[in-house]
Amino acid sequence: MDLSVYFSINCILILKIVLMEITTLKDIASKLGISVATVSKALKDYPDVNKDTKKKVLHMANKLNYTPNQLAVNLRTKQTKTIGVIIPTTVHHFFSKVIDGVIAEAEKKGYLVIILQSDEKLFLEKLHVNLLIDKRVDGILMSLSNKTNEFVHLKKIISRNIPLVLFDKVEPSIACSKVRIDDQKAAYDAVSHLIKKGYRKIAHFRGDLNPKISNDRFEGYRKALLDHQIPYDPSLVYICNNNKDFEDGYQNAQKLIKEHKDVDAIFAITDLVAVGIIKYFNELSIKIPDDIAVVGFSNWFMSSVVTPTLTTVDQPAYKIGKTATEILLEEIELLHQEQPITHKEVILPTHLILRESS
Amino acid sequence: MDLSVYFSINCILILKIVLMEITTLKDIASKLGISVATVSKALKDYPDVNKDTKKKVLHMANKLNYTPNQLAVNLRTKQTKTIGVIIPTTVHHFFSKVIDGVIAEAEKKGYLVIILQSDEKLFLEKLHVNLLIDKRVDGILMSLSNKTNEFVHLKKIISRNIPLVLFDKVEPSIACSKVRIDDQKAAYDAVSHLIKKGYRKIAHFRGDLNPKISNDRFEGYRKALLDHQIPYDPSLVYICNNNKDFEDGYQNAQKLIKEHKDVDAIFAITDLVAVGIIKYFNELSIKIPDDIAVVGFSNWFMSSVVTPTLTTVDQPAYKIGKTATEILLEEIELLHQEQPITHKEVILPTHLILRESS
DNA sequence: TTGTACGCGTTATCAG
DNA sequence: CTGATAACGCGTACAA
Fold first, then answer.
1. Under a CB-based contact definition with an 8 Å cutoff, are residues A325 and A101 in contact?
2. Is residue A305's pLDDT more than 90?
3. For testing the chain B interface, which of A91, A140, A335, A339 should be mutated: the one with the most B CBs within 10 Å?
4. Which residues are in the HTH lacI-type domain (chains A, B) (predicted)?
5. A47: domain CATH number?
6. Last residue of a domain, one of A44, A68, A92
7. Tens digits of per-residue pLDDT, A14-43?
8. Considering CB atoms only, which of A70, A90, A104 is closest to B99?
9. Distances (CA, A) of A301 to A13, A129, A186, A192, B90
10. What percentage of chain A has pLDDT greater than the value 70?
């Protein structure tokens, strides 16, 4: 017999003995010979309870290590002090920072966070919405998947009177609060920067056709060109839709070089795409930014350590998560107090971070 | 008045009208003129209920969009179908992949996941343990913070009879299941690889002194040297403990070059440290691997796109999360069935990924 | 100041 | 096969 297994079993036996009993109000009440109601009130600092009994209750509660059973509290108060988050994926620098912000803010206000991933699939998004509704979370935070093109599940949340805040990938037609950046303006700024630096033949590696975010960035790109009297050339726009941003960037860079030898800059929809481009150019010894400049989007950590370092748009991920959560918790609070809710749309500022690649 | 605000308020009014009532067993029962008990049984497919009534109940439940109130279910069954995860941070490639694995596996089995961050602080770790216990999660998954040097909070979990699985950063003395890699062997393999490639003066950028993980990797480094008749030189070991891995790598590389001009390889405790080293060497035009080879640890995505690409130890993050969750859910299930639990210690294999930097 | 009694929505036992 | 009834643990209006 393996020693570690033996050890483990041994431990279980010991544990059975040390097992801590969970104390309830009833336990305290019976030990003290008073009623459950009084104990409850004492613990919640009600005014109509004798100082002495309160002290006794507090002492006993402490001694028995009492903590209220949240399940029972939830059932009574109809609040779970829990919010749900649905995002495409956690394995993503942007989203993990958003989560960081969400958890930090929620925790500060005494809320717990349940995280679910849509994996960019509509049916999973729907499934998870139902899961969260059944779980009776107090509110829901969502960044929509790229494939989401119908919104009954969002309407269901709203019709159930559960506060919903959309962030990042947002649907304008849904009546709820939203937190996002101005993708069009951010893209416009990035491309304008390239133009000001003297680049003229600027390609754009864009995202899928459906998501608003990708169209907005594309529009920003186009507008920047037109506003600076550079004709818009559709053949300079490449679509990255394999959900493999890095390889999309790498492969499209390859294509681009074949099809447009004279291109002098690329605006990529995402840092990952940009890093794919950089990788390819490095392999071919195409000099960045001397031969071709590259600008990314999101300011992933990676963009600051890659060679050359990447000029990119800083997207305040942590702040997006934090703000969305603030609004959500506010709405939850208002709802609880039966006060009217006014939905907000917050647009957080972005900044272009200038680095070596442009 | 701002139009969007007006629009929002309008929407609220509409919502109030569409508000969906939540149906309970009682509703179904009264509509059908039967008892709650029968409805409950019909819905749960108990054998002792008439086919006709069952059909009627099912139909009505469907019509009214009935879903059981999980809060009540939880209170009754004393299960929340929720597990808690405490990790140092979500903003970390390794941990976000672990989370991915955890959520995927939990979801498959119908469990939800609450995530909390210790931010490498012991007091937060303790706080969160209490939060999760109060929340009555069915089980807890933890990767300990670097600062964790006492374990009463872990013992508290166990004494409450809540299944606990430790992963990645593990404490051997705690009687619970564990999922981890063999850090010492992984480090040994990495350094042996350098030696076989002909490198002789190999530095090690290690982690903080406390965490087991960092000591294990250091031991692997030392053993590999000794086993290959290379004397161990303590002055070649640099400590990275600023919690800023990238900068630690960068700065220690600077120091190393000053203090040991003839060093020919570095084994870094983490890819981030390695990338910091690479960055510094790139700036100084020190050739990797010709002048100095670099090996990292973890196989972050970044390591495959940096220039030169980084040789590193692949740590199966997703699998670690998935396996830990599997074991946890198993133990939860066993506990629920009042069957004895045997703790497991799973050691997942790592692989050295050979790239350009060595 | 304290205690009684009920409700939250389910599940489970047991009698009919 | 069906339905009272109790219980889970807590909160609170109301009676004492």
1. yes
2. no
3. A91
4. 23-77
5. 1.10.260.40
6. A68
7. 444 456 778 999 999 999 999 999 999 999
8. A90
9. 48, 31, 19, 24, 14
10. 95
